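SEVERITY: medium
COMPONENT: batch folding queue
REPORTER: lab tech (J.R.)

DESCRIPTION
The queue accepted two submissions in a row. Attaching both inputs and their returned structure tokens so the on-call engineer can compare them side by side.

ATTACHMENT 1
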Amino acid sequence: MPPTVVFDLDKVLLAGDASTLFLSGRLRQSPRRLVPLLLAAPVLLPGAALSRSRPLAARLMTRIAIGNPVGADVDAVAAAYGEALARKPEAAVADAIACARRHQRNGNRVVVATACEETLARGFLAAVGLGDLDVVGSTGTLWPPRVRWARGESKVVMLTERGYPPPWAAVYSDSASDLPLFAGTARPVLVNGGEKAGRRIERTLGRRPETVTWR
């Protein structure tokens, strides 16, 4: 089995917030979708504020913003990101995308593990030419009622369930919240992280992470 390399999404491959970028693109495509989003805001906003319900709120927001049959969600999300990136290309982190491709050329399996809702994550990756990468992200379904938030230790559990158990060849993240991932690799890489995050990771791991500044 080839070595696995794990990338976070927000602040690593995507500069900014995935939901905000998606909505900016989708509402440019279809301004009339603002009306149902505003009507749903009393449900969506409290749901997004609570970590336990955030993936479900993101999924509902995506469905309402798209408003088409479910089967085409990833393609529709990718098109919305494409619209947004045409106006804000710097939101796709070119250095990170190039690094992911180098790992693939070197024979590594590259997987994205993210707290972002999985459909949004897959759509963004498709929009930037990384649609062939697997994604382990947060999920939420109304029926059966179920929410899984891919954050911290749960990322390790979900990666393992999907066939990507540690140890990993490298892990790229912007945050010390991914310490459980960093603990599972000999090569932790802190992306655009501050000194405080670097010291916290060093205290836990007993060694400094690699640091990179990507744009």
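ATTACHMENT 2
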Amino acid sequence: MTTMRREGRRRPPPRIETLVAELGEWHRAIRTLDSDTPLWFGGKSMGGRVASLLATRIDIAGLVLCGYPFHPPRKPELLRLDHWPQIACPMLLFQGTRDPFGRRDEVEGYDFPAQVECHFLEGGDHDWQTLKRHAQTQSTLIDEAVGRVARRLGASE
């Protein structure tokens, strides 16, 4: 991101394996400081994909996946779910119903592992933005997701 700002142009993200390795390093660093606290990992879009791939390699308490990129837009045949059956931890999934990386009608047809808890954010796109005519806003959808995560993890709101 710093390089993009400095150069004033977009750059592709690092390869997914590079990002998984970097997140694995963060996991190791956190574990050297605290080896007892249950760790939930997660992310938005590609960050959630990275966290889910890491969860196939290490033990973590759970995953929070926001706007998971199930497939590239307009290419639903290129699913990114092959690794999900290898994930043993609980998974909280938050997906906008209008997300081009996986709309509600598509996602409801996927055969998820039993530990996946899927929540659809009504009217939201990939960034949970809603249409102006919709009763909800991006902010209320974020609040809805945060409330569900807090309840699931036992935190007070």
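NOTES FROM REPORTER
The longest strand covers residues 91-96.
No errors were logged for either attachment.
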